[in-house]
């Protein structure tokens, strides 16, 4: 298998792929694949419910929160959140921390009134703001943060205290990678394709009262209330993707849960950040140290020529996905839950060898 550092879709645990392969043609003796089965069947309902209950258990999701499996990716949530929650005189407040926060803001502006509660643009988005920098208007419908900026490689370690204003987090690139106190959030959402499974399903964890009454002026499929009142089975769900998510959740549980994942991710990223910090400036970390992501490590080499060579040579040695996002360039290693320690050890070794040859 390749050393897969793709940013998304990203690595899926090998054991999970093998388990899915075993049941691919004949799901537990049903005589058909899960993807051929009615989403109204008892077997699929079991998958849907199990994925929810595992997520609830692993993440400590309180009883007054609903777990939804939706489609359209996190990008659709950028619109659904303001469509459901912004009201006249109650704007959506946003913390602008990089490319993904910016996309969420642009989409919200199409829907209704939007306020910027803080921005780190003047620092080229290379850090997350401190709590003191975030100014939340009293009348805000919510405060939106991007928990981990996948492109810039920054991550929140202290989420803002939003008081009575519901805190909403885009956790697309760090959901289930570390413990979070779900009760501090009004709504959490994430496309599954980084830490949870394949693309095609988006997870929303939301407090009951926030999603109980969506405006009836918005299309039915865009209302949270539609999906909440139908157990995410209002229309045909992305059944195979939800099934894969349930396998990934079982895998996380088998590994000891979220606290274990957190430790595992810290161990993995330390190998690479240490190589950057000990390279006497050959490698340059992009994010400011206090905001360094445990999911996406962004770094540069002093010459673009060498960066190109790094990518070329790394590909020859079985590394995939180390090129930085096209908007920012440089190098990026995405080290989601499913990336094995051995891949990070191999990358750290490759970085040391590359520096020796070119430093
Ligand atoms: N938010 C973040 C932080 C992301 O990293 C991504 C995708 O990479 C998205 C949103 C968009 O997700 P999707 O492609 O599921 O719409």
TrEMBL record:
Pfam families: Aminotran_5. InterPro entries: Aminotrans_V_dom, Aminotrans_V_PyrdxlP_BS, Pser_aminoTfrase, PyrdxlP-dep_Trfase, PyrdxlP-dep_Trfase_major, PyrdxlP-dep_Trfase_small. Transmembrane segments: none annotated. Its cofactor is pyridoxal 5'-phosphate. Pathway: Amino-acid biosynthesis; L-serine biosynthesis; L-serine from 3-phospho-D-glycerate: step 2/3. L-glutamate binds at residue 40. Pyridoxal 5'-phosphate binds at residues 74-75, 100, 150, 170, 193, 235-236. The modification N6-(pyridoxal phosphate)lysine is found at residue 194. It is an enzyme of class 2 (transferase). PROSITE patterns: AA_TRANSFER_CLASS_5. NCBIfam families: PRK05355.1 (NF003764), serC_1 (TIGR01364). This is Phosphoserine aminotransferase. It comes from Paenibacillus harenae.
